Amino acid sequence: MTHKAGFVNIIGNPNVGKSTLMNALVGEKLSIITSKAQTTRHRILGIVNGEDYQIVFSDTPGVIKPAYQLQESMMDFVKSALEDADVLIYMVEVGETQLKNEEVFRKIIKSKTPTILLLNKIDKSNPEEVKEKIEYWRKKVPNSFVYVISALERFNVETVFYKIIELLPDAPPFFPKDQLTDKPERFFVNESVREKILKHYKKEIPYSVEVETESFLEDEKIIRIRSNIIVERDTQKGIIIGHKGNAIKRVGAEARKDLEYFFGKKVYLELYVKVNKNWRSNDKELKRFGYKD
After folding, report:
1. pLDDT tens string 126-161
2. Any idea which fold 185-288 has?
């Protein structure tokens, strides 16, 4: 029996719905989802196995023009996704006309990699506008297969899934058949906490935060986790903690609930806040947090 396998990399502007699509295709919540831009910072792999195929989905940060070193590292993840893709998914939504980084867009147009262009969030549009946008993007990216979808409602996602399988090259699996992702447990703890911070805090706070899990002890019935929320300034530390610790308690309670669902057992989560000045512009710290090799 012929076996197909390949990397399917998802690229698009911030807030286009990449993480929602990734989770729908994989069938698990691997990528965090919020309404804020730059929610995804890392390149996250989600692995789907069938009897005769393995799809390695890759969710990447939203395409932006970098303003500081952390964002430059995020765009490096996007560039690497362009280079090793066997199938490229380029996501846009109704109303968009281009990527926010022209260099990345030029690479997509010139790419010889099979490309699927997905027009997302069509549930927020009308048939006339959708038809107009389909024609626009077919001319803009003539080397692509164009589909309309609603990742949130999962409309047409199954059709796209089978098209991906059709486009995969013949190859043996890259990962063991029972593996779901390339990320360790601690990564999903960090992301779950960071998702709640993105949800509940405003302005610069969410973008100044990194989460680091320093202890993950799993017993038969419970996982005991100790994580640090890293901020850049003392004033941010106070905001994260909140009056009488109420703000950080809310973050911990919501993250713990999600983690119990994800790991399938009881979780005890301790959160602490530490100041690490200007970590977003520090090469050593960016390497420590996994943004640079």
Report:
1. 888 888 888 988 988 888 999 999 988 889 999 999
2. GMP Synthetase; Chain A, domain 3 (3.30.300)
pLDDT at 158: 94
At residue 116, the 3 state secondary structure works out as: strand
Could you read off the pLDDT of 99-134 as tens digits, one per residue?
666 777 788 888 889 999 999 988 777 888 888 888
Enumerate the β-bridge partners of residue 50.
53
CA distances to 5, 23, 32, 270 from 247, rounded to whole Å, are 45, 28, 20, 14
| Residue 287 region by backbone torsions, left for phi larger than 0, else alpha for psi between -120 and 50, else beta | alpha
Tokens 């906490």 appear where? 193
Residue 43: closest CA among 5, 99, 82: 82
Q: Where in the chain is the domain with CATH 3.30.300.20?
A: 185-288
Higher-confidence residue of 238 and 96: namely: 238
Q: What is the DSSP string of 173-224?
A: -SS-TT--BSS-HHHHHHHHHHHHHHHH--TTGGGG-EEEEEEEEE-SSEEE
pLDDT tens across 15-46, in order? 778 888 988 998 877 765 444 455 565 678 88
Contact of 5 with 172, CB cutoff 8 Å = yes
Residues of the chain with CATH 3.40.50.300: 4-167
Amino acid present at 236: Q
* C-beta separation of 36 from 206 below 8 A: yes
Q: Is the pTM for the entire model greater than 0.90?
A: no
Fold of domain 4-167: Rossmann fold (3.40.50)
Integer Cα distance of 156 and 134 in angstroms: 15
